[in-house]
Amino acid sequence: MTGAMSWPFLRLYILVLGYFSANAILNVIIPLQGNAWGATNTTIGLIMGAYLLTTMFFRPWAGQMIQQYGPIRILRLILIINAVALLLYTFTGLSGYLIARILQGVSTAFFSMALQMGIIDALPEKDRSQGISLYSLCSYMPGIIAPLLALGIWQSGNMTYFTITMIAIAVFTGVLGYTARIDTRPSTATKDSSDQRTGTIGSLKQLITNPTLFTCSLMMLTASVVFGAVTTFIPLYAKELTGGSAGVYLMIQAATVVIARFTLRKKIPSDGKWHTSFIVGALLLLTIAAQLISLSVIIGAVVLYIGAICMGVAQAILYPTLTTYLSFVLPTHNRNILIGLFIATADLGMSLGSIIMGPLSGVLSYSGMYSICTLLGVMLIVFTLLKRRTMERGINNLLN
């Protein structure tokens, strides 16, 4: 096999599988454990949101450091920090969970940027979208089995299994990460550090002044609020449904993401052009999914699981499509930093989905909160249609 499916890249995808397995388990354990300790939805949302909120702040710096020192050197250091975070979960309480989530946020900022930038820089343009899609696919694959594993650990009442699992993941990712290789092309040569810092400061302005980056970032931010609200509160919401299971929902959603990303990986545009209908289709699925989840408390668990399928397809399409598009239209000299800023908006959205939607669910109920997510989806569709001409100009926007 060659290109995105060659052995060096397969090793990276396996590393991604191991790394994100821990978070797939923690997405179930933390809300349940927090609820058992008497934490409010606001507190649970804050702890869950701290992870990606921290990741958001470190993304731009991660892009700069990776561009300066290379992905492999950064990867090896960050896996040590991640191992420390995983160990903290095994013997601390809520405050320790918060610290561990922050450490995880730091490590994920560098880990995901190192892998994605390494893949983008090492693959030819024709294989770029496949590489990003396969990376994203492997980051979701743990969600197929891990939620059920987490529920099994929780229901057993023996958290020793949780401790063993966290240690095993830390060791596995450490060993695999220290033997990984990424051969980047010469175009990724590093710059003087002072130029890097100037580029980072200047790049922050482009979140507003660059219309393509601004539009993609705002879309990803809003969509991620919905994704974050689902990930954080489904373990608690499913308990209100007759026959509802958070493990089954998360398994279906993750399996849908994996299947859709694999089967559609060659369909995701990799030509540097903006495809409005493709994006609107993904956003429509996101909107339908949020509404189905909201109605499931009335209609039943079957509707919840249909919503999981729609949500999974939306996740499978939206992120790699926008990332691939930006990898073509952004200037190469600070592309890593700008893509880091874009991914940071996705992290911010996921965090806000936990932090803001937590109090809203306390006021409106979980069903009402997911209705708000439906409204966000409708607004996104309208926004995308209004920005159609701006985005279709693509790379020409950089010259304005």
UniProtKB/TrEMBL annotation:
<feature type="transmembrane region" description="Helical">
    <location>
        <begin position="246"/>
        <end position="264"/>
    </location>
</feature>
<feature type="transmembrane region" description="Helical">
    <location>
        <begin position="160"/>
        <end position="180"/>
    </location>
</feature>
<keyword id="KW-0813">Transport</keyword>
<feature type="transmembrane region" description="Helical">
    <location>
        <begin position="44"/>
        <end position="62"/>
    </location>
</feature>
<dbReference type="InterPro" id="IPR036259">
    <property type="entry name" value="MFS_trans_sf"/>
</dbReference>
<dbReference type="InterPro" id="IPR052714">
    <property type="entry name" value="MFS_Exporter"/>
</dbReference>
<feature type="domain" description="Major facilitator superfamily (MFS) profile">
    <location>
        <begin position="7"/>
        <end position="389"/>
    </location>
</feature>
<feature type="transmembrane region" description="Helical">
    <location>
        <begin position="276"/>
        <end position="299"/>
    </location>
</feature>
<feature type="transmembrane region" description="Helical">
    <location>
        <begin position="74"/>
        <end position="92"/>
    </location>
</feature>
<dbReference type="InterPro" id="IPR011701">
    <property type="entry name" value="MFS"/>
</dbReference>
<keyword id="KW-1133">Transmembrane helix</keyword>
<feature type="transmembrane region" description="Helical">
    <location>
        <begin position="305"/>
        <end position="330"/>
    </location>
</feature>
<dbReference type="Pfam" id="PF07690">
    <property type="entry name" value="MFS_1"/>
</dbReference>
<protein>
    <recommendedName>
        <fullName>Major facilitator superfamily (MFS) profile domain-containing protein</fullName>
    </recommendedName>
</protein>
<feature type="transmembrane region" description="Helical">
    <location>
        <begin position="337"/>
        <end position="357"/>
    </location>
</feature>
<feature type="transmembrane region" description="Helical">
    <location>
        <begin position="132"/>
        <end position="154"/>
    </location>
</feature>
<dbReference type="GO" id="GO:0005886">
    <property type="term" value="C:plasma membrane"/>
</dbReference>
<keyword id="KW-0812">Transmembrane</keyword>
<feature type="transmembrane region" description="Helical">
    <location>
        <begin position="213"/>
        <end position="234"/>
    </location>
</feature>
<feature type="transmembrane region" description="Helical">
    <location>
        <begin position="98"/>
        <end position="120"/>
    </location>
</feature>
<feature type="transmembrane region" description="Helical">
    <location>
        <begin position="12"/>
        <end position="32"/>
    </location>
</feature>
<keyword id="KW-0472">Membrane</keyword>
<dbReference type="GO" id="GO:0022857">
    <property type="term" value="F:transmembrane transporter activity"/>
</dbReference>
<dbReference type="InterPro" id="IPR020846">
    <property type="entry name" value="MFS_dom"/>
</dbReference>
<feature type="transmembrane region" description="Helical">
    <location>
        <begin position="363"/>
        <end position="386"/>
    </location>
</feature>
